[in-house]
Structure formats: C-alpha cells, structure tokens
Design brief:
This protein has a seven-stranded mixed beta sheet. A two-stranded antiparallel ribbon has the order 2-3. It contains six helices and eleven strands. α3 packs antiparallel against α5. With about 220 residues, it is α/β, with parallel strands linked by helices. It is globular, with a radius of gyration of 18 Å.
Amino acid sequence: MKKLVAVIPVREGSQRVKSKNIRPFAGKSLLEHKLEIIKQLPVDDIVINTDSEEAIRIAQREGISFHRREPYFASSKCSNSEFHHYLAKVTEAENLLIAQVTAPLIMQESYNRAINTFYKVNCDSLMSVKVLKEFIWYNNKPLNYSIENTPNSQDLPEYLVPTFGLVIVERASMLKTRSYIGKNPHFYKVTQVEAIDIDTELDFEFAEFMFQKKFENTL
C-alpha cells in the first residue's frame, strides 16, 4: 500500500458558486492551479476524486489518476461523515493528503512543512486551522469573556478553527472516525491568507484578487 497519496476532491455541482472548481481563476481553473502545487510534493500518487467529466479530462491530460465518484457521494444528501468515510474507502493508501482546490492560497512550503510535521509528531491526523481571537456572543450572552470584566482583544482566549484546506490523515483513522480529524489530531496553523476558502461568489472574487496579488510576478 502506498504511504502517502494526495487526494483532490472535485465536485461538479456547487450550490453557491457554479462550477467553481473548473471555471477560470487567474488564468487557469482552481483544479489546475492546485495540481501545479501538488505535483511538486513528496507523494506517492495523486488521485482526483470527482463526478466532473471536465475534471476527468484534465486528469487524463495531465497524466493524473482519477476516481469517478458515485452520484450519491457528489450530492447534497451526502453528509461530511459519509463522504470522508467513502473517500478513505476508495483510496488505497496508508495516509491521505486531502488537498482542497477551494483553498488556492496554501503555499507549497506549507504543504511540505505539514508533511514533515505529520511524520514527526505523534498524531493520526493533521488539520489546517486559523486562529480566532474575537468577542463572541451566542443567545444574547458572551461566550468567551465576562461582560463585567471585558478584556483587551489581544487577551481573549485563542480558538482554533479548522479550515479543511490542508489535511493529512491516516486512512485507518478516517475509516474508524468517519472524519478528517482523528482521535489524536495535530492542528497546523496557517496564515489568514492561506486560510481563505471559496464558498461564495464574493469569496471567489476575493481569493482571485489575493492570488493575483501574491503571484503577480509569476502569472
């Protein structure tokens, strides 16, 4: 069984941003940009898991393996837990690197550091996270501070928010927990820029702007 396989999930349908994975983004599709990065990583194989015929054509053109996703697992009826279990079930590997195309600003250096970290620390999964230090309210009450003793923002507790953009996980853990995050996770902090995820049209436009700004000398 291969030690580390990079899996790139590409769903054809998108409820908020039509065809976001394969539509033009800074000169190429999000999928093509992601492939450029993943091809440079120390992985044993790359598999595009998709129900998109266009993504399959890109895979064939680039000489990349693909798995044709079953319709249910590409539908909105499929829960994340079901999909994560399915992804592990159909991918033959000891460990999976899940590379989301909707996180186009994660740098190659971050992937390399994450891979090295995964093998060095005692964990069954590595998840990219962003730091949240803000005043949070729920049901008309503050959650993370006392209103009678409001602290400075820098003194608020530090919360870690999974971004799901960069994931490395043992296949056995995914099969057991049905999740990208295992029982013994390591949370890998990324910058606010790398944490950008495309979920809306505004996200798409902003991510493209930041991508072009970051790579303006190489595009």
